[in-house]
Design brief:
CATH superfamily of the largest domain: Regulatory protein AraC
Largest sheet: 6 strands, mixed
Strand content: 15-25%
Order of helices and strands: HEEEEEEEEHEEHEHHHHHHHHHH
Number of helices: 13
Oligomer: single chain
CATH architecture of the largest domain: Sandwich
Helix content: 40-55%
Shape: elongated
Length: about 325
């Protein structure tokens, strides 16, 4: 009997929590990378990041100037920022201070903590979020260029606890501190996204808005818990206690695509993961996603990704050539 190394319909990663599914699919991994303290008048210019970047003010206040933004943003103790766009930034005690380059501030082998002046007025910690290069855009493209979570938000106690724990783990030299910092940084990233989701007026359309909409959450949960099932619009509408027409209209208004289009697109994201992970036959990947024929699956996959499943796999996992 042929062993199936990755059967999507039986995967323990399939859940009724679409937000967690996307974080898993994109392999979102947060890392605490360093920070600095400052005193007096100071300013640091950070280069354009190639990853999602986050930071928090753990003492004092600063101004954040972003590339292309007309006015700087004021940050106070406990504020957290998330930068997903490719923009340079300047952190300063005042907007009129000439910045020094961050590469000079943090120069030195293995240096992740720096001090400007006497370091008595301000303290900052920062990090970045790694994403899978193939599936990562699913999350990255759903985020705004910049998120600012002030310490005045209702979630402030959670952020304060996380920041206190991060500092304690970073500075305490306890066994397992590296793992603890990574887990806390991951939770900080999730909490930033949760706080952002509560601002329904800033979400626009797309899956990120959809997962925060309680009216269509039951339908999303059903599709994510069993993506291979041939869901019908009537079933999904009934789960949301709406008529078929009302559900279809509301879902598209929130998500940007009709419900069954969303299901098909999610299946293709899962297919990309399966084709990248192992050598499971395309026919078995198709079957695990609910397609009755390989050709039907291949047509849908090419329509969404622009490549056939076989072409995608070859491009993602090229066969190594023999050395001459």
């Amino acid at each position: 009997m042929l062993e199936i190394p990755f059967l999507l319909r039986d995967s323990p990663e399939m859940s009724s929590d679409p937000f967690s599914d996307v974080l898993k699919l994109t392999h979102a991994q947060s890392l605490l990378t360093g920070g600095f303290t400052a005193g007096g008048r100071w300013a640091v210019r950070f280069p354009t990041p190639d990853k999602i970047k986050f930071f928090a003010v753990v003492k004092g206040q600063c101004w954040v100037q972003l590339e292309g933004q007309p006015t700087p943003i004021h940050f106070q103790t406990g504020d957290v920022g998330l930068l997903s766009a490719h923009l340079w930034s300047v952190l300063s005690s005042a907007p009129d201070v000439e910045p020094v380059d961050a590469m000079d501030v943090f120069s030195g082998a293995g240096r992740s903590i720096a001090q400007l002046g006497d370091g008595s007025d301000f303290a900052h910690i920062g990090g970045h979020v790694l994403l899978d290069p193939i599936s990562g855009p699913l999350l990255l493209n759903a985020l705004p260029p910049w998120i600012h979570i002030p310490s005045s938000e209702p979630q402030a106690p959670i952020f304060k606890w996380l920041l206190d724990q991060l500092l304690e783990e970073r500075d305490g030299a306890q066994p397992g501190a590296q793992v603890a910092c990574a887990q806390l940084a991951q939770l900080l990233f999730v909490q930033v996204l949760r706080a952002h989701l509560k601002r329904s007026g800033h979400l626009g359309t797309g899956w990120l808005h959809a997962v925060s909409d309680p009216r269509i959450a039951p339908a999303l949960g059903l599709m994510h818990s069993d993506p291979a099932r041939p869901w019908h619009l009537e079933e999904l509408a009934k789960a949301c206690a709406m008529s078929r027409t009302t559900f279809a209209s509301h879902f598209k208004a929130v998500c940007g695509v009709p419900p069954l289009t969303y299901l098909m697109q999610w299946r293709m994201r899962l297919a990309e993961r399966a084709l990248s992970r192992d050598n499971t036959a395309v026919a078995l990947v198709a079957e695990s996603l609910g397609y009755t024929s390989e050709s039907a699956f291949s047509n849908a996959f090419k329509r969404v990704t622009g490549r056939s499943p076989t072409g995608y796999r070859k491009a993602r996992c090229p066969v190594p050539t023999e050395p001459k």
